[in-house]
Write a structure and sequence with these properties.
Blueprint lengths: L1 H10 L10 H6 L11 H13 L8 H16 L3 E10 L5 E11 L6 E7 L22 H20 L5 E7 L21 H12 L6 E6 L10 E2 H20 L10 E2 L5 H7 L5 E5 L25 H17 L2
Parallel strand pairs: 3-4, 3-5, 5-8, 6-7
Antiparallel strand pairs: 1-2, 2-4
Helix pairs in contact: 3-5, 3-9, 5-9, 6-8, 7-9
The chain binds N-[2-(1H-imidazol-4-yl)ethyl]acetamide and zinc ion.
The site of N-[2-(1H-imidazol-4-yl)ethyl]acetamide has 8 residues, from loops.
Length: about 325
């Protein structure tokens, strides 16, 4: 019945690809269900995160959103672990960070890691208006989009378990990196504090995964995902597989073949500290001023900047890659 309800909802959604009809889904109740990544559902998960307010570490909105994310993963059948850590920011502030981990088939040694950061940047330090530089951002794209896609992936996995284990890791404290306006002493590695902690623990505990896929800023209407340098350096085969899958699904316009500069993102620490080959699907525009989308670290990173089509292309690609694994 639930299945039927989703199919009916899908019928009203203009952004679903043609060919997903109610009859096909309904007939497949007993067989393996079709991979039906729902763009509407992913979009709603983005919206719900933004509705909490700014997900800045050490704030009530941040705490409330953590509880929401953990509850969602649990609702979607994952084994949930909260990894708490006090990490120190560029200015000495101690951030009470929580990485949220949802595991599928935790008993299997053969695993795939999917990740995104769930915190949001406290400062719009790239806003065109300098008066906004110390204001927080909604982080609809920078943060919530990747998490929204992964929650929908989780919802799908609960209906049809993958052949290998899957760990969905939502990193905290990614976006508290040294702001542009900071004039004090320089401290290295101030971005990705949650993933740095997770990666060190993973190494210590002997955690293994075949590979990882990081999603960062995967919701903008004009998104393109070039072959990011660290991804090609540490995990070329994974990148080729994911880009090939995207192309075969008709998303070659987004998953482009151009290469870009290295992006210091969570996957860098997954590669270097945990030793797990991990790629980054990240919106990067080499012709833009910052290298990222024009909304990046500005007040424009809000729900107006989220496209169901982009969420769909990324989610469908990731889900297809997972179900292709034996
Ligand atoms: C740096 O700007 C050094 N890294 C970008 C990582 C990032 C920030 N992704 C989203 N926000
Ligand atoms: Zn950011």
């Amino acid at each position: 019945m639930k299945q039927l309800l989703y199919s009916l909802i899908c019928l009203c959604c203009a952004c679903q690809p043609s060919g997903t009809t109610q009859t096909t889904t309904a007939q497949q109740d007993d067989a393996a269900p079709a991979i039906e990544f729902s763009a509407d559902s992913a979009y709603r998960f983005v919206e719900e995160q933004v509705a909490f307010g700014y997900r800045i570490p050490n704030t009530p909105a941040h705490k409330a959103c953590a509880a929401y994310l953990a509850a969602k993963l649990e609702q979607f059948g994952a084994t949930v672990t909260l990894q708490e850590a006090d990490v120190t920011a560029y200015d000495g502030t101690v951030l009470h960070a929580t990485n949220i981990i949802g595991s599928y088939r935790p008993e299997l040694p053969d695993r795939i890691l999917l990740c995104a950061h769930w915190d949001t940047r406290p400062w719009a330090d790239h806003d065109p208006d300098e008066a906004n530089h110390r204001k927080p951002i909604d982080g609809a794209n920078d943060g919530a989009s990747g998490v929204g896609v992964l929650l929908e992936v989780a919802r799908q996995l609960s209906g049809r378990l993958p052949a290998c284990g899957v760990d969905i890791v939502l990193f905290d404290a990614e976006d508290y990196g040294t702001p542009e306006f900071h004039t004090g002493t320089y401290k290295p590695d101030t971005w990705c504090l949650g993933s740095q902690h997770w990666a060190k623990e993973a190494k210590k505990n002997g955690y293994k995964a075949r590979y990882g896929i990081l999603l960062d800023m995967v919701g903008a209407p004009d998104a393109i995902f070039p072959r990011e340098y660290y991804s090609t350096y540490y995990a070329a085969g994974v990148l080729d597989k994911v880009w090939q899958t995207a192309r075969s699904l008709g998303f070659g316009q987004l998953f482009v073949q151009t290469s870009t500069y290295p992006v210091t993102d969570d996957h860098y620490y997954v590669n270097t500290l945990a030793g797990i080959p991990c790629i980054d699907i990240v919106h990067y525009n080499p012709h833009g001023e910052t290298g990222f989308g024009d909304y990046w670290h500005t007040l424009d990173d809000n729900m107006d900047n989220i496209s169901r089509q982009t969420l769909y292309a990324v989610g469908k690609t990731v889900l297809t890659v997972i179900y292709d694994e034996q």
